[in-house]
Amino acid sequence: MLGTPQIRVFHMTWFSFSLRFFAWFGKGRVFWLFTAVFCEGLALMMFSQMAVLLLAIPALILFSWFVQMSEGATFSVVPFINKKELGAVAGIVGAGGHTGAVAAGFLFKSALDWQTVLLILGAVVVVCSFAALLVRFSPEAESESSKADQTALSQNRPQVEPQLEPALT
């Protein structure tokens, strides 16, 4: 059975592939951030409507998949916001997540049932995903990132053969 580390490796591999896909077609990190967060909200709304356990578990795994990809997509954008103040930007982004969690906690404390709360949270995530499309980078940051990507893709790393130790007899 897959545990958390195995699922995380799968998510990160899929995230890396998806990010490259969007970069190749000129949409880049910001559009991938929008897509991942938008799909996260849809998956949460889908999970909120599940009444059968056998359907709820895959829906929850799908939601988790998009949550982790959204986290990665968010922090892939952070270095391009302000490289000189990288720590401050990362801190503000992290604090925003905690602020949203507190707000969601208040929603769970209301008189609404959990299915309705999860549906509302999913809708809020979908609406907030459009804020990602407002992120713009300076032309210098875009060209610098493009050059770094091309350099990384063009480099051929030598394959190192593993050294095998002699077997004990």
Q: What's a quick, concise take on this entry?
A:
With 169 residues, this protein is mainly α. The chain has helices spanning 4-24, 28-48, 53-81, 86-108, 114-129, 139-154.
Secondary-structure topology with pairs:
Layout: H1 4-24, H2 28-48, H3 53-81, H4 86-108, H5 114-129, H6 139-154
Helix pairs in contact: 1-2, 1-3, 2-3, 2-5, 3-4
Fold and architecture overview:
This protein is an all-alpha fold and 169 residues long. The chain has one domain (4-134). The protein is built from six helices and no strands. The protein has helices at residues 4-24, 28-48, 53-81, 86-108, 114-129, 139-154. The two termini are 35 Å apart. The model has no long low-confidence stretch (mean pLDDT 79).
Comma- or semicolon-separated keywords:
6 helices; about 0% strand; mainly alpha; about 170 residues; about 75% helix
Structural classification: mainly alpha
Q: Which value, in Å, is the CA radius of gyration?
A: 20 Å
Number of strands: 0
Q: Indicate the percent of residues in helices.
A: over 70%
The portion of residues forming beta strands comes to under 5%
Sequence stretches where pLDDT stays below 50 over 5 or more residues: none
The number of helices is: 6
Order of helices and strands: HHHHHH
Arithmetic mean pLDDT: 79
- Rounded to the nearest angstrom, the distance between the terminal CA atoms is 35 Å
Report the principal-axis shape: globular
- Give the biggest sheet: none
